[in-house]
Amino acid sequence: MRRLALLALLLPLVAPAQSAFAQAAAPVCPVRVDPAAFASEARLSTLAERQEAFGPRPTGSTAHADYVDWLEDEMAAIPGLQFSSLPYAIDRWDSLGTGLTVGGTAVQVAAPVPFSSSTGAGGVSAPLVHLAAGTNITAANAAGKIVVRDLPWTSVPNLLFYPLGLGYSMYDPAHTINLLGSESMEAPAAADADLKAAAAAGAVGVIEISQLPHAQIQGLYAPYEGLPYGVPGAYVGADQGKQIKDALAAGQPVQAALTVNAAWTPTTTRTLLATLPGGSAQKIVVESHTDGMNPVWDNGPLTMIEMARYLSSLPVECRPRTVQFAFVTGHLYQHLTGPAVREGGAGQLAAQLDAEYDQGGVSSVVVLEHLGAKRYDAVARPNGLPGKQLVASPTLTELLMVPVSESTPLRELVKGHIQYWDVKRTAILKGLSAADPATVPHHCGFGGEGTPYNQHLLPVISPIAAPKTLFSPQFGAEAIDLPAMRKASLAFTDVVLDLGPMAQSAVAGDVTAMRQQRASGTPGCA
Asked: Where is the signal peptide (predicted)?
């Protein structure tokens, strides 16, 4: 009895001591990423050089598959991750050789247009016709001929990226962006319409002339639909374009021979998923694609490796939500599952997440593309040479556009981290297409991989730049501004960190009402 009485007296003293011990043992979760605990610029440089060593990575190629395997190895070295894959069967398009002669003289070819019709090793021969911009390709002017076209340049006014346009917030503390200027780049995607029109008109082939020199466009890869064109097509540089036009300037018929030898090979490709469990099963999905021509096109996976490494080092109590890293395929093969739907692997994953969202399985999506892309300006070539050449700015990066779905708290979250980490020349946007109040979402375009997630009415943050170096393997890791890439990586790791405890109602914003409107029959994006 005396022992029990003594125990009763001691219990009130022990309980507070246990409570104090439990409080002391509770993990202290970081408010922001500790930069000392995150990848250094040297580490990011090593990863970018390793990525570059794989070479160009068309969808389903050996280099692409090897790169995805390497990403899996890098992620597997991080404790706590769980892995799965989403496989797809495709017919890979392989170039076996290209060639061009004009009037019997060889002309250097920079690259075939991907997914061109194969001529076989023997090529095709026909008269040349140059059809200037604005001239439609028709049976009357192109049937039985090889059509010569000039690639256009797209231009977007900078004012569009500011509030009252598509902008929500602009961070440009040094005022380096000319409000009255514009962002422009050559548009090889225009070859898609040219080849389709040429096939319909009965043309024999298409030659696309770039304003850039051969050395900067060799291996150019665009468009990347994944569907066969009805005619062969090829790109040539500015000097070779002048050679062709000079031959035509004499006013006499000029015969040309074009060879695009290619093959379609059945293969498989996959999206790699690496999942870091958190306090709840509800997922924050961090996504980037793995197929590309150079490191800047798809350096998002490199940031994802280091983001996963940092987040996995935290106690699970500091990760209220699960984080899933999606290394997506099919960016360079947009009709991944057939001709009916243009979506790539991002669209496939977006549809899956859409189905999970209303059951509470998904919180948000963060898509990372082209972080730290150096700015290259197109300037006149020296010594009177034709066209332009790309020259790197010694100080500037390309404008980083960050479309964020329709949630003010989500946009404010991104704005705060962009400013804190000093990610200069960043525009937080409502979207990258004009608003249409009759559809949900109102802004259908997000400029890149973020688009299908936005169109599936998922809360999404989608940073992307538009570097002029994008489509060419001739630009390597040197086209990445490593300090800028690291700042952006820290900022978006902080975004993911803060998304963990953020109320889902704040994350979703107007997306919740839009999903209800969609269920009631409001049309989505076409």
From this structure: 1-22
Instruction: From 381, 125, 100, 126, select the one nearest 236 (Cα to Cα).
Output: 100
The CATH number of the domain holding residue 515 is 3.40.630.10
Pair 134, 208 in one domain: yes
| Structural domain count, the chain | 2
Asked whether residue 202 is domain-assigned, the answer is yes
Judge whether 320 and 503 are in contact, CB under 8 Å: no
Closest among 269, 270, 276, 353 to 75, alpha carbons compared: 276
Report the alpha-carbon distance of residue 74 to residue 305 in Å, rounded. 7
Report how far residue 321's alpha carbon sits from residue 298's, in angstroms, rounded to the nearest whole number: 26
Question: pLDDT of the chain along its 526 residues, tens only?
Answer: 333 333 333 334 344 444 444 445 678 999 999 999 999 999 999 999 999 999 999 999 999 999 999 999 999 999 999 999 999 999 999 999 999 999 999 999 999 999 999 999 999 999 999 999 899 999 999 999 999 999 999 999 999 999 989 999 999 999 999 999 999 999 999 999 999 999 999 999 999 999 999 999 999 999 999 999 999 999 999 999 999 999 999 889 999 999 999 999 999 999 999 999 999 999 999 999 999 999 999 899 999 999 999 999 999 999 999 999 999 999 999 999 999 999 899 999 999 999 999 999 999 999 999 999 999 999 999 999 999 999 999 999 999 999 999 999 999 999 999 999 999 999 999 999 999 999 999 999 999 999 999 999 999 999 999 999 999 999 999 999 999 999 999 999 999 999 999 999 999 999 999 999 999 999 999 7
Parent domain of 218: 94-152+187-263
Q: Taking CA 523 as the corner, what is the angle to CA 519 and CA 526, rounded to the nearest 5 degrees?
A: 130
Nearest to 63 by CA among 231, 221, 208, 216: 221
Q: Which amino acid is at 428?
A: I
Query: Would you list the DSSP string of 85-147?
Result: EEEEEEEEEEEEEEEEEETTEE----EEPTTPPP--TT-EEEEEEE--TTPPP-HHHHTTSEE
* 162, part of any domain: no
Q: Are residues 400 and 486 in the same domain?
A: yes
Task: Report the C-alpha gap between 432 and 402 in whole angstroms.
Answer: 9
Q: Residues near 26 by Cβ (< 8 Å), separated by ≥ 6?
A: 317
What is this structure's pTM? 0.94
Specify the DSSP element, H or E, that contains 387.
none
Whether 31 is covered by a domain: the verdict is no
72 and 102 inside one domain? no
Shared-domain flag, residues 293 and 411: yes
Q: Do 221 and 105 share a domain, yes or no? A: yes
